[in-house]
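Q: What would this chain look like folded?
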Amino acid sequence: MSVRVAGHFGEWLQGRLGPAGPLALVTLACPALAVRATWSERAGPFAIDQDPCVIDAGRARAFLAALGLPAAGRVTLRAAMPPGGGAGASTATLVALARAAGFDGPTAALAAACLAAEGATDPLMQPQPDAHLWAPRAARCLGALPPPPAADIVGG
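A: My prediction, written as structure tokens:
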């Protein structure tokens, strides 16, 4: 199975909801930046072929186990963004890994597993990630939003 998960290009906005409130953001979805995961069943130990390297095999196995998925076979990961570049490479990789491995459970369960693996997570597991006021350190939607306006984003 092969899946593609889009990343983001930062946030439309980010900050605290009140002095003691949670960190909240609205992500700037960017389909040009994505991770593709292709899962192949095979005998032998779990293996990852990736470029660039985003996740090590041990962390991938633990993440899959947290979702009740077997770590068997081979996964090929290709990220069209640099890890650590602020484009959601780590969250997109986890979501792509889970979906390529056959995860079809609740989005909230996938968000919770991403949070446990990362400590904070982008809303990239959502069908429309930029239509949520998102709490990245709680992996939950604080409110639904209308889709953002059409825009041409220029960056580098």
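Strands lie at 2-16, 23-40, 47-51, 74-79, 132-135, 140-144.
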